[in-house]
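Entry 0007
Protein: PD-(D/E)XK endonuclease-like domain-containing protein
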Amino acid sequence: MRISYSSLETYKQCPQKYKFQEIDKRKAPKTKEAIFGTAIHSALQFMFSRDPLFPTLSEVVEHFRDKFMEKCLLPEADAARYCDVGEKMLANFYKKNPPWNFNVIDLESHFEVAVVDEIYNVSHTLAGKIDRIDKLSDGSYEIIDYKTNRRLPSQNDTDKNQQLAVYQLGIKKRWPHVDPSKVKLSLYFLRAEEKISTFRSPEALAHAENEILSQVRIIEEKTQENDFPPVPSALCDWCGYKPICPAWRHLYEKEKKPEIQSAINEFLELKREIDERKKKLISLASIVREYMQIEKLERVFGDMGSILQSRQERASWDSEKVREILSGSNILDSVMTVDPQKLSFIVRSLPDEIQEKLKKEARTVKTFVVLKVSRKKEKAPE
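Output (structure tokens):
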């Protein structure tokens, strides 16, 4: 199986999108954000390409504009706003990072490496593309990935970033002689003008590889079952598959069946009414319960019937304490695999001294009040 960080991330975000993109190989129109990001990356690649001199800032900006406008289908005013943002980002980056100050050894570096799943004795191809690789003055290396989004992650999130781990796995397979501790992994956020860096130990890389293989096993299993449900989220607004996605396709249908639309609308209206009534019911129950508590009443009466307070208990169990108390017992396995309700039932069949110990040390009981309604019976006509 051929995998990449982007395909794994797509599956995590939405299995249905993964199927469209990776299995069905359906082409989706690129979003304006994707076109913008591609143009920025192309300009930065051009910026560090000396032929024989490094390009000037104006040349880098012109390169970005040409690439963006070549694919952009936005109205002129919207396109101009994107261009302004891109030019500002590139100008700030160029000022802080003059290309002649860096020893760039590779740009847009493609890699393909084999990762072996020893459990199933099968090999997969891990592929990717690294924006930039620098060789630093101390002989170590730095992998840099450019980001155009606004969100700046924490250092902890960066330390766990799977994309950077994938890139280092690619470098490790290509250059096995390079010590992983000598490879800096960096995310450069162009809007914030911030670079966040991290390192991966051999143990962390092995863990990352196992995580990737675990994800691949799940995808292969779901592929056999053809089980790729859509996961609607805010990310759908940037997805080109919405018109054919089962979670959105109905919205794009030009001719909708009137009887179905009527049923949908009636359902939505009834659901709204029910939700509002539930909120009202909770509010009224709180008022009635508080009144009964203040007046020390167990039952109150209204024109249509009565309301009775019913106290119920719900037990929860400390599994570690249960295991400790029942250690060595032949019923331990059966008790530890049942739900709390069944566990409460099983405990009643144990010797009295064990029951008491369990109840005292491993059980927590919460009491809650339920209001039971009794409706008045209508009198039969005489």
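Curator remark: Strands lie at 2-4, 104-117, 122-135, 141-147, 183-189, 194-198, 299-302, 305-317, 363-375. DSSP finds 14 helices and nine strands in the chain.
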